From TrEMBL:
UniProt KW Nucleotide-binding keyword: no
Keywords attached to this entry: Coiled coil
Coiled coil: 13-99
Entry protein name: Hsp70 family protein
Length: 703
């Protein structure tokens, strides 16, 4: 075979090979396109399902609106009928007057006083009845939620409805979703309720290489191919942005993915203990949230719970929220107070709840205000600070920076984050949870760098490398070093407790340490040393999840309700509330704040933060409209400060606006009362026209 033939064969082979490569690439492209189309198809399906749900909601709202419209028509007809009756009464009154007028003058004079009294009585009764009917609003009970009509109720008792709603509940699950660890407790609904606790699980997720699948939950796998996601709860609430961790995925998805794993545990326990139970029909879920959560935060959490398939629908009534402090209060009231003989009303019945979360410390003081049944009232403002157990992790990281230089640790985090987080996780398991801070100076922790984080070796400086080689790449963290990690955090917590006790106007007799960090022996030891002379101290385990489950049982039996509208009979405002008010500028006012028409706007405080309020209290402000004024706009502001002068001061925020119509503009004697009331879930703003009884009302969510 000639070289020319061989050359052609080689060329043909190469051409065929290139075509084959191109075909393989085209095949891969087609596979990718097919995969993309499948994903798009799935997204379209989900969008279509969502639209179907929205259509169902719209149809339901339309039906509710039709019922409402018919009810209003019935009321209008009723009002018309009553007006006709009054008109007939007026005709009778006029006939009576005419008949009386034809009597003889002498007889008329004798009875003049009596006739006048009768006439005035009938006329006044008529005017009163007419005014009552004309001003009587329709008797409609509406609950407005997120700007949409969510329920229609004409005259149904709420407790009865709730009792009917929960009549088939067989199990109550109290779920404490924490920053660093979570737990749930299940109560069986029987005459003598019993329950069981699932093991606690750290709030940690481990994803595969592309975050498409959760491969582990509750612990950290040091495999470098996996990705760790944690502290995602910190993206809800008022944590400053600079303290919120950066996440590789959207925080709502991380929360939902973690709750999906919790759901598996809950359903497994339910199936094992009560196989006949239908989860969506027979289970009431009570979910704990921090006291600082706004309504928006709760809505986001509800969405995540729904996406985790812990509830059947997003608006399900079988999900109830309770704050962590209230849940802990219920448990301690039922199970701890009897141990201290604190159930009598009178002296020394206050108690302090110290909630130690993953990143925050919440301190609230509660007082028993009723004994039969037991009732609690929050009597001092909440103290919240960012000095929880995760800050001890930060102290450990600072120690690593000192040992290996910050540059080396930063490079390790950037290139091998999983291994870095694993050594922090191991420190938490072996040191943070078990360190007692007693005089046992033999307690220590040894980190083998070559075994645990060999990748760090390539980043350390030559000087550090020589030192570490001399120590066989072992870091011995002795007792005093560990103690120094804890002391700054615990010192800060103790200062907060002193402030809280100083603010309390009554003696606090018992202190309950609840939450994940409260199990640390050193924290408890330091607090006992500092406060044992003033209060009794205990650390009830799982108080939050157990209290949430107990609250669920109270919801099922309104007669035993110890929270809701009865138990927390009063609350402490976290902010100062007031309105913007414009008045005439005066010589002692700042010149730069004078408007072109010589006016000045100031903040008028109605109620200060730290004030104990009940739902039947009104905080009012009276103003006189100017002559010719036909409209007023009340802007409600709130601030974390106890006093303020202007609405543009730092920390001042707009809560909402109430617009008011002002009739009778020609009158000069108009008087308007503006006020705020504070219900457990809503703030009500209202105005009352003292001249004609006109009233405007709107509701704002707590922020």
């Amino acid at each position: 075979m000639s070289s020319e033939v061989i050359g052609r064969l080689i060329t043909d082979f190469n051409n065929l090979n290139e075509k084959c490569v191109h075909l393989v690439e085209e095949n891969q492209n087609l596979k990718q396109q097919n995969q993309n189309l499948q994903q798009e198809n799935q997204i379209l399906k989900e969008n279509l399902q969502e639209k179907d749900k929205q259509l169902e909601k719209f149809q339901e709202r339309n039906k509710q609106y039709e019922k409402l419209e018919q009810h209003v028509k019935n009321l209008e007809k009723q009002k018309s009928d009553e007006l006709q009756q009054l008109q007939q009464l007026e005709i009778i009154s006029q006939n009576l007057q005419n008949n009386l007028g034809i009597l003889g003058s002498d007889k008329a004079k004798k009875n003049d006083i009596k006739i006048t009294e009768k006439k005035m009585f009938l006329t006044n009764k008529y005017d009163e009845r007419k005014k009552e009917i004309m001003n009587k609003p329709p008797i409609i009970n509406l609950e407005i939620f997120s700007g949409s009509l969510s329920s229609f109720n004409e005259s149904i008792d709420i407790d009865t409805e709730k009792s009917k709603l929960y009549s088939d509940i067989k199990l109550v699950v109290g779920l404490d979703f924490g920053t660093t660890s979570s737990a749930f407790f299940i109560n069986i609904v029987t005459k003598e309720s019993s329950g069981w606790l699932s093991r606690q699980k750290d709030t940690i997720l481990v994803y595969n290489y592309d975050y498409s699948e959760v491969v582990a939950c509750g612990y950290i796998n040091k495999c470098p191919r996996f990705n760790i996601v944690e502290l995602f709860k910190l993206h809800l609430g008022s944590l400053p942005d600079n303290l919120k961790p950066k996440l590789p995925i959207e925080y709502k998805r991380a929360i939902a993915d973690y709750l999906k794993e919790i759901r598996k545990d809950i359903k497994s326990e339910v199936a094992r203990r009560m196989p006949e139970a239908n989860y969506f029909e027979d289970v009431l879920l009570v979910f704990t949230v921090p006291a600082e959560y706004s309504e928006e935060d709760k809505d986001i959490m509800r969405e995540c719970i729904y996406n985790a398939k812990l509830i059947k629908s997003k608006s399900s009534e079988k999900l109830q929220f309770i704050t962590e402090s209230e849940a802990a209060a219920i448990y301690c009231m039922e199970n701890e107070l009897p141990n201290y003989n604190l159930l009598s009303i009178g002296s020394k019945i206050g108690r302090l709840l110290l909630l130690t979360g993953g990143s925050t410390i919440d301190i609230t003081t509660h007082k028993i205000v009723g004994n039969n049944p037991l009732q609690l009232s929050e009597v001092t403002e909440l103290i919240r600070d960012f000095c929880g157990s995760t800050f001890i992790d930060d102290e450990f990281i600072k120690l690593l920076n000192e040992k290996f230089e910050t540059r080396a640790i930063d490079l390790l985090k950037k290139s091998h984050y999983n291994k870095f987080r694993y050594i922090v996780f191991e420190f938490c398991q072996r040191v943070k949870k078990s360190f007692a801070g007693d005089d046992n100076t033999k307690f220590s922790y040894t980190l083998d760098v070559e075994e645990k984080i060999p990748d760090l070796l390539q980043y350390v400086s030559e000087e550090t490398k020589k030192i570490m080689e001399a120590n066989n790449w072992l870091i011995d963290i002795e007792y005093n070093d560990i103690k120094k990690l804890f002391d700054p955090i615990i010192d800060r917590i103790i200062r907060l407790i002193h402030i809280q006790l100083l603010n309390n106007k009554e003696t606090c007799s018992a202190m309950f340490l609840v939450g994940g960090f409260s199990g640390n022996k050193y924290l408890r030891r330091r607090i006992e040393q500092e406060f044992h002379h003033a209060v009794k101290i205990t650390s009830p385990l799982d108080a939050i999840s157990r209290g949430a489950a107990d609250y669920g049982l109270l919801l099922l039996n309104p007669n035993l309700n110890k929270l809701g509208n009865n138990d927390i009979s009063s609350s402490i405002l976290k902010y100062t509330y007031g309105i913007q008010f414009t008045s005439d500028w005066k010589d002692d006012d700042p010149p730069n704040r004078k408007t072109s028409d010589r006016k000045i706007s100031k903040f008028i405080s109605l109620v200060k933060r730290g004030t104990e309020v009940t739902s039947d209290q009104d905080f009012t402000f009276n103003f006189k409209p100017e002559s010719g004024q036909t409209h007023a706009k009340f802007e409600v502001y709130y601030t974390n400060e106890k006093s303020a002068t202007y609405i543009d001061e730092p920390g001042m925020k707009l809560l909402g606006v109430l617009n008011v119509d002002l009739p009778d503009a020609h009158l000069d004697n108009r008087s308007i009362n503006f006020g705020l009331t504070f219900d457990p879930n809503k703030i009500t703003a209202f105005t009352r026209n003292e001249l004609n009884g006109q009233k405007f009302v709107t509701k704002f969510c707590y922020q």
